[in-house]
Amino acid sequence: MKSPRPPQAGEGGARRFGGRVRARLGAAVTSILLLSSAPATADLVGHSGIVKSVTVSPDGKRVLTAGFDYTLRLWDLATQRQLAELNEHFASANTGRFLPDGHRALSGSDDHTLILWDLDRIQMLRQLKGHGANVAAVAVSPDGRIAASAGWDRSVRLWNLDDGALLRTLDGHAANVNAVAFTPDGKRVISAGYDATIRLWDAGTGDAGPVLKGHNFGVNGIAVSADGTRLLSAGVDETVRLWDLAAEQELRVLPGHEGFVVAVAFSPDGRQALSGGRDGKVRLWDVESGKPIHVMNGHAKAVWAVAFTPDGRVALSAGGDEVVKLWDAQTGKPVNSP
């Protein structure tokens, strides 16, 4: 099989300064159109570039997105209205995550930095510097005190969110690191990258643990189940893979996507999974059987991110078509569809 290669976050598109001006102009025009338009449908429309990340607040009321237009955007989920634009990065905003308190968020960018945000005041609290290349993904510990970041400098870095200090650097990947997550107990950090490996680390000491191998090419995304027993991974090899974290072994392969898979997510109860990738399709899976439940078609370009609401009733997907779509997780149809 020919190795498909996903677009690299730093390739093409706007350059750091001139591109930022163009991105902001486009965002301003989009914001004007949003304010003057009729009530929104179930699509979140406002970004002027690939939407690379989507996440839902712990209370299920707000959505945070990150885009290639250098911005993060905060949305009201019930009305699909944009609440705020967070614009302090100087390159593509690749990832954003709510902290457990729901009042703060963390983002990572191609400008090599992380930013901690106050979502009530809509302002930057702190900038975290240390990576020597793009920051592809971030994760926050369950207690909200520690952050992990995945970088294209082949490192995973752990940060103290109270003061922004770099705690330690985890080296082991032989290529760009694309994804990072904490286990629900906060004791382990899991990372994945273009070296086709998934690596487990001790979050307290930084010691390297087991290495999970199974993907034929790079790993783009990972997700950990709420009970911490299972892991999903999304691969350039066109597969989604399910892993047993206790046994540290692969359970099954979920084939079906045509082209690289970028993103995966578990439902809150761990019984279902979402995936999205190059083919523009969002797939909902039964985790136990590994069989597809729904295939959701709606994006005009690749799907870059997927998520569930905390109640598991709504699935979200973000695409290269600059749109975030909301799906009824039970029917597989767009939210608000007739």
Brief synopsis:
The chain has one helix and 28 strands.
Topology:
Layout: H1 18-36, E1 44-45, E2 51-56, E3 62-67, E4 72-76, E5 81-86, E6 93-98, E7 104-109, E8 113-118, E9 123-129, E10 135-140, E11 146-151, E12 155-160, E13 166-171, E14 177-182, E15 188-193, E16 197-202, E17 208-213, E18 219-224, E19 230-235, E20 239-244, E21 249-255, E22 261-266, E23 272-277, E24 281-286, E25 292-297, E26 303-308, E27 314-319, E28 323-328
Antiparallel strand pairs: 1-28, 2-3, 3-4, 4-5, 6-7, 7-8, 8-9, 10-11, 11-12, 12-13, 14-15, 15-16, 16-17, 18-19, 19-20, 20-21, 22-23, 23-24, 24-25, 26-27, 27-28
Walk me through the structure.
Helices cover 6% and strands 49% of the residues. Strand 18 and strand 19 form a beta hairpin. It has 338 residues and is mainly β. It has one domain: Methylamine Dehydrogenase, Chain H.
Low-confidence stretches: 1-5, 7-40
Please give the alpha-carbon distance between the first and last residues. 41 Å
* Strand ordering within the main sheet: 1-28-27-26
DSSP E strands, number:
28
Strand content: over 45%
> What name does the CATH topology carry?
Methylamine Dehydrogenase, Chain H
How many DSSP H or I helices? Answer: 1
Structural class: mainly beta
Which whole number gives the mean pLDDT? 90
* Total tally of structural domains: 1
Largest sheet: 4 strands, antiparallel
